[in-house]
Design a protein that fits this description.
The structure holds 2 protein chains of 2 kinds.
Chain A (H helix, E strand, L loop, with lengths): L3 E4 L2 E4 L5 E7 L6 E7 L6 E7 L5 E2 L8 E7 L2 E6 L8 E7 L7 E2 L3 E5 L1
Parallel strand pairs in A: 2-11
Antiparallel strand pairs in A: 1-3, 3-8, 4-5, 4-9, 5-6, 7-8, 9-10, 9-11
Chain B lengths: L8 E5 L4 E6 L8 E7 L6 E6 L4 E2 L4 E4 L5 E6 L8 E8 L17 E6 L1
Parallel strand pairs in B: 1-9
Antiparallel strand pairs in B: 2-7, 3-4, 3-8, 5-6, 6-7, 8-9
The chains are: A mainly beta, B mainly beta.
């Protein structure tokens, strides 16, 4: 089946720095990808929809200047957490799907801001 | 999106069947019933989906009530690896496919499997 890969699996960064997370569709082209965030013992919350070649669509309450999304190719979307703070520590997950198939999720990236 | 209701947690013994219920009384005619599961520290993975008829695949079975207001995910023989959070999600297929993958997750059911 289709595979979505995220990198890195985990990252620790200092407060005030930026972190980039990559999401790749390995064997299919994804014009649309989705980014979720999951805090401990909570469910996944959709952050934004990443559209290839155009601006991302952010969910209400998500700061677009803080969570920069770039979808420059049909197989790669990146999420950059800018000026990270401890409250941004979370599990970030991307997903993509082909027409007529289920959604495929990356393995997730655990971000810890110290 | 129509809402689903699931028990917070369920327990099972290894190699026994597990029936995970989901209520979706406000489901619309075009909503598909999807089940995903999330193992600890991993992204969710697809389990099964259906519209009106019961469905079977290598992982599980999905039993859908005749009025479609509820469904049950059936794991025929639970293993320790099946311990996960199971999410029942309603979603409409988009003809263009671009919205597929945009899912609204509820709290899900935490399944514990005892050896």
């Amino acid at each position: 089946g289709a595979v979505v890969s995220q990198h890195p699996s985990w990252v620790i960064c200092k407060s005030g720095t930026s972190v980039k997370i990559e999401c790749r569709s390995l064997d299919f082209q994804a014009t649309t990808m989705f980014w979720y965030r999951q805090f401990p013992k909570q469910s996944l919350m959709l952050m934004a929809t990443s559209n290839e070649g155009s601006k991302a669509t952010y969910e209400q309450g998500v700061e677009k200047d803080k969570f920069l999304i770039n979808h420059a190719s049909l197989t790669l979307s990146t999420l950059t957490v800018t000026s990270a703070h401890p409250e941004d520590s979370s599990f970030y997950i991307c997903s993509a799907g082909e027409y007529g198939t289920e959604a495929f999720f990356g393995q997730g990236t655990r971000l810890t801001v110290v | 999106d129509a809402k689903t209701t699931q028990p917070n947690s369920m327990e099972s013994n290894e190699e026994e069947p597990v029936h995970l219920p989901c209520n979706h009384s406000t489901i619309s005619g075009t909503d598909y019933i999807h089940w995903y599961r999330q193992l600890p520290s991993q992204g969710p993975e697809y389990v099964i989906h259906g519209l009106t008829s019961n469905v079977n695949n290598r992982m599980a079975s999905l039993a859908i009530a005749e009025d479609r207001k509820s469904s049950t995910l059936i794991l025929h023989r639970a293993t320790l690896r099946d311990a996960a959070v199971y999410y029942c999600i309603l979603s409409r297929f988009n003809a263009g496919g671009t919205s597929y993958g945009k899912l609204t997750f509820g709290q899900g059911t935490i399944l514990t499997v005892h050896p």
